[in-house]
Specification:
There is one protein chain. The protein is α/β, with parallel strands linked by helices and 169 residues long. It has 5 helices and 5 strands. The longest helix has 18 residues.
Length: 169
């Protein structure tokens, strides 16, 4: 039995608009971000979805709750789907970071990829044969796809807000 994972990036946030490195901060959806989630919920309304899983950060939970409401389902939260921990870069203006020296407290790519593998193992183990919507973030979603496809993170195209990608596990 195949497990179908609908990997979603959260809707647009205030910090996305302002080009702030959110990392593991909670984040707040903009009106446009709410509209993006509502549009995706409408697009997915006719699909049979067995479970909704979200990062435990507010911007993803809020997006996932909008998606799950159309199916009268609740949302399971997991820290495995949290965005990369950007350490000392968190809260900073992204264009200012272009040539900055990376602080030592940023989550390593190796740790991020390991967390992505643990997430895929969790979905395979707990939702075998199910269709699951999982709402995460740009970088962790990229890591999940890199592990899934056996590629580098650079080879995975950036996801836009409220974009969905289908993976068969």
């Amino acid at each position: 039995m195949q497990t179908i994972l609908l990997l979603v990036r959260h809707g647009e946030t205030v910090d996305n608009v302002n080009q702030i490195m959110q990392g593991q901060t909670q984040g707040q959806l903009t009106e446009a971000g709410i509209a993006q989630a509502e549009k995706l919920a409408s697009e997915l309304a006719e699909e049979k979805i067995d479970a909704f899983v979200s990062s435990d950060l507010k911007r993803s939970v809020d997006t996932c709750q909008i998606l799950a409401a159309a199916h009268q389902q609740s949302v399971m939260q997991t820290p495995l789907l949290r965005e990369r921990d950007w350490g000392g870069f968190t809260g900073r203006y992204i264009p200012d970071l272009k040539d900055a020296t990376w602080p030592d407290d940023i989550e390593t790519q190796e740790a991020l990829l390991l967390r992505a593998q643990k997430f895929l193992d969790f979905i395979r183990g707990d939702f075998q044969g199910k269709k699951v919507v999982a709402v995460g973030h740009g970088i962790i979603n990229k890591a999940i796809q890199a592990v899934y496809f056996g590629k580098t993170m650079r080879e995975i195209p950036r996801m836009t807000n409220a974009e969905v990608r289908y993976l068969t596990l």
